[in-house]
Amino acid sequence: MGLWVFDAGLLTGFLLGLGYVWPAYVSNATPVVAVKLLGKAHPLDLGATLPDGRRVLGDGKTVEGLVSGISTGFAVGVAMHTLLPFLFRDLLEILLISSGALAGDILGAFIKRRLGIKQGAPAPILDQLGFLAVSLLTIHLTYGLPSFITPSTLTLLLLFTLLMHVGTNTLAYLLGLKDTWY
Ligand code: CTP
Ligand code: MG
């Protein structure tokens, strides 16, 4: 008996899961590029601080980032939906995946500020997985997770996302889009 057996079902489930969360990846990655292209952007918290003396969200969460992120993620999801109609149930589901991702990113910034972590400073796990966790939680609470997202495919997706996040951020840093590699 081998310790590890190739599992075609797990691989298929993982690939389906990856397709399913792809709009969330796109939504999460778009703002950094969009804001770079625009040059300037307006902070979502309008510069406001809370009684702890820290910004509500900070300058890293902007209106332009939010709008470009949700719309690009949604558009990519809609395109995928026409090619792979079995992936999403309807367009609202795609919108929830995309907006859930941005909500998670914004919630992450809120938590970071409350913990006294400066904008742009790292918060391991929260930075990499917060967007995906809230995106999938939103689906869990509304449509329910699709059958191909099982505990094992979810574990693979989270591990893959950790690696992808570090990889794409390093790439964005090397391309001069980001000031830090994380
Ligand atoms: N960004 C944005 N609006 C968003 C999300 C991201 O404008 N809703 C842009 C900002 O320019 C941000 C960059 O994308 O600096 C990188 O995003 P992220 O790493 O999520 O933000 P941080 O700058 O690290 O800020 P924080 O510490 O609050 O996460
Ligand atoms: Mg960051």
Automatic annotation (TrEMBL):
InterPro entries: CarS (IPR032690)
Alphabetic keyword roster: Membrane, Nucleotidyltransferase, Transferase, Transmembrane, Transmembrane helix
TM region positions: 91-111, 123-143, 155-176
Coiled coil stretches, renumbered: none
Gene Ontology MF terms in the entry: CDP-2,3-bis-(O-geranylgeranyl)-sn-glycerol synthase activity
EC identifiers of the protein: 2.7.7.67
Listed name of the protein: CDP-2,3-bis-(O-geranylgeranyl)-sn-glycerol synthase
